[in-house]
Design brief:
It holds the Pfam family HATPase_c. The chain has 464 residues and is α+β, with helices and mostly antiparallel strands. The chain folds into three domains: 23-190, no CATH class; 232-307; 319-463, Histidine kinase-like ATPase, C-terminal domain (Heat Shock Protein 90). Helix content is 61%, strand content 7%.
């Protein structure tokens, strides 16, 4: 007979590579403590005062005044309560009261560092109160004055630190209160639950206010950036438009030069050979310049113009077409009176075009913002014959009506200034006492040579 020894059943063997539950819990706890230590030890913007970015100097000083008021009021109260009511010794009372209240002044610029000092002082105070004679029947571990000071600190902390740090502070406060209940379960007036709840409420309210303020500031910054970008885009578009128009003006003169230089040998008899070669070189150079400008014009023209059949070839307008412009404005419901010089004025194309565009933009603004307002347009030449004055004045509408646009961006004025600056003129705009508006442009009859030459015009157009 064979007897077999039996071994007790120890259950299934653990799977290889599988970590025991206890080790997983310990590792997770260590990871949580590491994250907690990082959050509690990394302040946000240390040294920056609360409300330091506001414009009002009184609001910037407000956190200092509030912190000073709490510190001054809580320090003698803490000394009196801890010494007389709880029965602690004098030296310990002074040290604890100072550590629990004076760091509130630090909370204005470094609230997380102030929390470390005050929280450690509160915990040491709770430990010291365990054996005190007067603690029976009184609040413990957090006396009332400690709760008030701690909540003031939480408000400063919530206005500065991120949510993860606030959560770490809140949980640390709850753990400290829970441990006090575990080690001294016989205390009837335990205030750790009250402290834990009030701390969470204050931290949540402060964090909500701070995030709302941050969102509003970001929105204002974004609106400011968007408005600046719109103004910049309008400026670039107006410069591009000016460059296209100047190209048309200069291209006309270049075409005249080309034709005159090429036809000179046929129109003038007896030219020497050298003169014919010189005229031929001038014509060739003018053709190259004109071809280069046409290639540049293809870049400056909008896609819409190309889809409509290629580049525009109509002549650029001038003050001679103001009567037609005024007629169209009158049909739009704006009574306009036009006054032009009695004698024809010889203007450079750039000046003539700029004067027309300024009047055009000014009348468009009247139609948009003051429909029905009586308007006067006058074009006069100075007594010395050096400058042309373009004046557009509209009064308040006699029968008030709703404007087509209630807010103005000022982008039309940007275009006017660009055109005036192009010919080295000056522009004066502004509202009138009766509710109207005035636009006065003073343009030289001949623009500066540096801006009237084909070469400089091509360079300006290329840079745009």
């Amino acid at each position: 007979m064979t007897v077999r020894a039996s071994t007790p059943d120890r259950g299934p063997a653990p799977r290889p590579g599988r970590e025991p539950a206890r080790q997983r819990v310990l590792r997770a706890a260590r990871q949580a403590l590491r994250v907690l230590a990082v959050e509690l030890g990394t302040p946000t913007e240390p040294g920056t005062p609360l409300l330091g970015s506001v414009r009002s100097p009184w609001l910037r000083r407000l956190p200092y005044v509030v912190a000073f008021g709490f510190a001054v009021s809580l320090l003698p109260t803490s000394i009196n309560v801890l010494g007389n009511d709880y029965g602690l010794e004098g030296g310990l009372v002074g040290a604890l009261a100072t550590a629990q209240t004076v760091p509130l002044l630090l909370a204005v610029t470094r609230p997380l560092q102030a929390w470390w000092v005050i929280f450690a002082a509160d915990v040491l105070g709770a430990v010291a109160l365990i054996g005190a004679d007067g603690v029976a029947g009184r609040a413990w571990p957090w006396p009332p004055m400690e709760i008030v000071g701690y909540l003031a600190l939480m408000l400063a902390l919530s206005l500065r630190e991120r949510r993860r740090t606030l959560t770490a502070v809140w949980l640390t406060t709850g753990v400290a209160g829970l441990l006090s209940q575990v080690f001294t379960p016989d205390r009837s007036n335990n205030t750790w639950v009250l402290m834990f709840v009030l701390t969470g409420v204050v931290l949540m309210m402060g964090a909500t206010l701070r995030e709302r303020g941050d969102a509003q500031r970001k929105l204002i910054e974004q609106e400011t950036i968007s408005e600046a970008e719109r103004a910049r885009r309008t400026l670039l578009e107006e410069r591009t438009r000016i460059a296209r128009e100047l190209h048309d003006v200069v291209a006309h003169h270049m075409s005249v030069i080309t034709v005159q230089a090429a036809s000179a040998p046929y129109r003038i008899s007896g030219l020497p050979g050298e003169a014919e070669e010189e005229f031929g070189a001038i014509a060739a150079t003018a053709r190259e310049s004109l071809a280069e400008m046409r290639r540049l014009l293809g870049v400056l023209r909008s896609e819409e113009a190309e889809q409509q059949g290629g580049p525009e070839k109509t002549p650029q307008p001038g003050i001679g077409m103001l009567a037609k412009l005024v007629e169209g404005t009158v049909r739009a419901g704006v009574p306009v009176e036009l006054a032009l010089p009695e004698e024809p004025v010889a203007l450079e194309p750039a000046v003539d075009l700029s004067a027309y565009r300024i009047v055009q933009e000014a009348l468009a603004n009247v139609v948009r913002h003051a429909p029905g307002a009586p308007t006067r347009v006058s074009v006069t030449v100075a007594a010395d014959g050096a400058r042309l004055t373009v004046l557009i004045v509209n009064s308040a509408p006699s029968a008030p009506s709703a404007p087509l646009e209630t807010t103005g961006t000022g982008h039309g004025l940007i275009g006017m200034r660009e055109r005036v600056r192009l010919v080295d003129g000056s522009l004066d705009t502004g509202p009138l006492p009766d509710g109207g508006f005035r636009v006065a442009a003073r343009l030289p009859l001949a623009p500066p040579p540096s801006q009237a030459s084909p070469l400089s015009t091509t360079k300006d157009a290329h840079s745009v």
